Amino acid sequence: MTVIQPPPEEAIKPDPVDIEAELMSGKQDASAYMSQWQLIRHKFSMHRLAVWSVLLLILMYGVAVFAEFIAPQTPHSRDLDFQYCPPQLVHVSFEHGFYTYAMQRQIDPITLRRTFIEKRDQIVDLDLFAKGEPYHLWGLIPMQRHFLGVDHEAAKALDSKASFHLLGADRYGRDLFSRVVYGSRVSLSVGLIGIAITFILGMSIGGVSGYVGGRTDNFIQRGIEVIQSFPQLPLWIALGAVMPGDWSPIKTYFAITIVLALLNWTGLARVVRGKILSLREEDYAVAARLLGAGHGRILFRHLLPGFTSHVIVALSLSVPAMILGETSLSFLGLGLRPPVVSWGVLLQDCMDVQAVRYYPWLLTPVIFIIVTVLSFNFVGDGLRDAADPYSATS
Amino acid sequence: MKQVVKQLRSVFSFLVVTFAMVICICVIAWFVRGDVKNEPTQIDPEVASHYREQRNPTFDPNNTYSLHLPSDVTPQGESPILKELVEAGELPPLAERLPKKPVVMDTVDEIGKYGGTWLRLAIAPDDVGAVVPFRMAGAYLVRWSPLGYPIEPHIAQSVTPSNGDRVWTIKLREGIRWSDGEPYTADDIMYWWDDEVNNTFVSSNPPSWMVNAGKTGRVKQLDTYTVRVEFDEPYPNFLEVLAGQVAFTDIPEHYLRKYHPDPDIGDEQVIADMMRRYKLPSRSSVYGYVKVWNNPEYPRLWPWVFRTYTSNAPFVFVRNAYYYVVDKHGNQLPYIDQLQFDVLDSKMLALRATKGGVSMQGRHIRFSDYTELMSRADTEGYHVLHWYPATRSAFVINPNLNRRVDPDDPSTKWKARLLDDKRFRQALSLAINRKPIIQAEQAGVGEPSQVAPGPQSRFNYPALSKAYTEYDPQHANELLDELGLDKRDEEGMRTFPDGTRMSFYLDFTQFTGAGPGQFIVDDWAEVGVRATARERARPLFYTEKDSSDFDFNVWSGESDMMPMISPRYFIPMNTESFYAVGWGRWYMNGGYYDSPQSKTIRGSIPVPKDHAMYEAIEAYERATHTPDPAEQIKYMDRMFEIAAENVWSISIATAPPVPFIVSDKVKNVPEVALYGWAFTTPSNAGIETYYFVENNNSPGAIAEIKRAVEHVTPRPDADAGNSVGRLVKLLLFGIVMLVLVMIGWKHPFVWRRLAIMVPTLLVISVVTFTIIQLPPGDYLTTRIMLLQESGDEANLRAIEDLKEVFHYEEPSWKLYCRWMGFYWFTSFEPADEGLLQGNLGRSMETMSPINQVVGDRLLLTMAISIGTILLTWVIALPIGIYSAVRQYSISDYILTVLGFLGMCTPAFLLALVLMVYSGQQGLFSDEFYAQPEWDWPKFIDLLKHIWIPIVVLGIGGTAGMIRIMRANLLDELQKPYVTTAKAKGVRPLKLLIKYPVRLALNPFVSGIGYLFPQIVSGGAIVAMVLALPTVGPLLLSALFNEDMYLAGSMLMVLSLLGVFGTLVSDLLLLWLDPRIRFQGGTR
Question: What is the value of pTM for the model shown?
Fold first, then answer.
């Protein structure tokens, strides 16, 4: 479901771009010619933060889709010479193009802490589309090129072992950035799959509740109230604990999304129900009924367009809860477990005093969580402002 | 054209975003990498080698020392606390309390000073019970020394073998008294032997260590202070056994006799009284209930005794006025006044330990935290000792030699055959590249090794430690091919000889952690053996272990340095020998001596006589029945030789040293000591002689100790001290009263709310109950299974009791009715009370009433939650109003972003980071934790700590509140009445506050109901991280342990609070919003 959808009335209207231009130039009455979707789009585009957030989300999901290509390494390849290697900065010069310095480990004799020294005289060349570890894109296409990686040919001339860890390495010398990139697949898709379930449950239950009304409505609403008055987290944990320990990672993954979605649909159902309740008494809905339209036609043809935008808002606002939910569950050890890589699993590693104090780059997955959740919130916020295009613009 | 420009603009924006993100990542990378040097740090080689040596603790086993002194010393000094009590006439004088010839112990540094509180940390209340009676008491007849041998007479004056180690004569010290002042004599030992071991009401089988060569020994009393233990065959290890058995020294006849379940021995009246007071189902359950570690009335011989009952941490043990040990100047030990345990999550233990949370501790201090431990030592005022690990391996892979064959799964047949083939095990051991694992997991400390006693042991056998530990994939491949595993599948992995897919599981628990699991899986894949490492919940792990239904599992070694006492990795000594649980069950039930029991017990598998293991057992049996030390070594060597050849288990490396945190204020702690369960560490290292250079007890704490020494505070009756029960009743009563008030009001809005209240609560209770019942198995089932395994009749009775207490066999709906207390309405019996009567049930884990467990935690939780809600409002309201009034201004954007940031940050992480950098954990600093009186500094200290949870919990909610307030106010501000008011010239601020804000508050108020339970539950992880004694962590651990009534009842209480909150918020709304009052509302 996307926001950009050609409005059916377009044919009989002037060019939409012109309308927008007119709008911009202050001729307010131009909005009278715009379809609902155009209005929403226009108003949404006024919300700068939301627009940027959408682009950011596209970027994040793009990275998740091309994870194998973007990540310099596979998530499980380890090199013990780079245990707890700090982030290596990317430098640019005309002479070398992209490059970084080689890192050499030293171990503190007293505390056994691994520290690294940056060897300024050992330049590790980085290549765009460098040849690296072989992989199968989407598990199908065999490839060897990575977006940015160590130029292994040039690195052979160095005394030190060449490495490139953009966000540092973890206790096994695995590249954290690669793990974040791979982890985004699981963590970002939890939200989408969860949304799908939320959508189905929320729409159908909320729709029935609002359209049928009466006792059914009452019954469903009480049910929703019961679900909402539960403390969520214990419920997650209890449901997480129900999952048999011998399930495969994939099975657990789906089970978790379902658990998260099962508690998440109530908000949407409420929105849908409320909207249907008010819309079905509108003149045009009554007219359709009197003209003999069937339930399906009234519901889908006449009522649904009236609240699609609200559904989108409700959905976009429920994604963050899912992503954070996955993180909390995995953090507690009830969700996904290694060797599966997800942002929640990565956070398990920083649940350690030493990580926070000595190896703070292990905390960087949080930044990605925050950015994603923040973006979803802004998008939801922008959509909410835009959802009701006829409200007064200030 | 314009379209194209627009498209281009989007693409450009996207590129800008991408670029910004890349820059952002780079900046973050630069920020978190800290200060990376360009030049190597110069390391003083001497310092380096000093610390390297320290990490490799060693000692000369032939030249050890003892803390026990043989000299006669008259007791003459005592703690000022006790002196005051003697002067007040509350205690008899020192000479009357101590034996004429007390135990005399030397001190490592110097004679100590009295006073102080020894702080320790535990990971669960049960953990305290698992450590204090044994390792923190050291009250044995004979006791190990810091470096193992010699074993010195402690409570016993002497233990002498005769008749070729067949007869052991135990002479007790005259005048030793229990902590209640009653004398300890041979009668206590005889009570244990005659009325416990040989009384079918208490036990049906003698303890395994009283059985020698298949025959049970005999205990005979010679006089008041002398006992003789006789065996038919030589039992040279008996002294080592006595050094680890509390049976002789922890059974006070004068106290226990009256509770004995045998009607001929026990006192009917007392038992009936106990059953009524504590709601116990049977006579034997009374006996079990009396014997738990946290019964304050139970007399002990420990240096510190539990005298004041509490159901939650801190657990405090105060000095035993009758302790029978003195230093060489005759001062009564221990020097330290009290021992105090706090309980917190194991993940958070290291942080607390380095922040002064422990005075001296090695338990739960992990080597993986070494960097932190060593780095903080100087600034936090402690030092780290490196004690010698008697447990010789941190990570042992157990191939399941008794693999159960599942007829429905043909692969298990192949697995069983392979796992029992030594070539397979040899190959897998050879395939592991151990060096990198040591580098990654143990920071390079340790050597590749199988489980072996080690060079400091009398039974050192170097060939065992090095057996098949070299990395030799080629040899491994040859061995595997030889086994007939030469076919490969399309993934390049070996298949079973019949061509079917071969795949093994490597199961581990949180106890060892995943550790090298992935390394091993990868190494095995190199030789074509497919394996998957998977984490198992502890109960499931045990279930599979006990039914031999696993391929490989992972555990640590256990006191392997003493293979005579702990041979579990060399022969299947019991079911803790994970590689052969069936054999272990057979052996521990006397299978080697053909006992009838070993044939009838479920899951017992006899070791085939032609199996190498049989010979190993034979060698061990010979060794344990030979008085001649040289011959013992000969037989043990044979056992090791077999183990080396057969690779019963696959270990990675020798264990790193055990880091011991010792506060700089504590003296007399030996530099190196043996650490292991078999040596009852740290009691072998002279715990009673440790002392504080400065007394860290406040006057209030000292008064409290004095009170505890003087009076016992027993466990409250099951009904007493029931503040939670009262609260639940109050809530229910409150709801009923509100219902009545509202009915009187006859308001449609109210009517609707009320109509759903009762069914909602009912549905919630049903759902809660269903969910907590869902997980397969629960704490009780696991416990019953463990009890069944022993086959002991007394345990079978205990099972019956458990089943009765928890109505184990009843159908779920009946259990539900009981839990809710529906039966009470038909019987009005107190026994049938349930949730509706304010009785939350009983915890399966601790058996104590949940009302007492939850107790004061609930109050604290409510205090923190209410504090959080208030803080949220105080911050969110003004910001929300400001944001709305200045919509789309820069400050609005900044506040919005900040608010969202708070909402997006995972709270537990924020808590962790704040905690690490502020160094505050829990609610009090340790010096105030032990202090009972409230004064100004303690209050300030509380404030210093409590801001973290409130801020962390508040931040998430604040953002949401700001958004709601802003949105509502924006709606209101656009309404005509505002314009009218403005036009009429009402001052803006007055206008704002008087009308729109008031209306915008509406959804705020209606949110109270949901807010409270969400804060409590959302705060659970935060509380776990911060080690707060609130309901949250308790609920989490209950859910993890599947302690279903505890979890369920707490969920119900939270929901109840939520529902009550909703009601209150409805009333508030009525008062606040005239529209609802007059129209009936449309919420």
Answer: 0.83
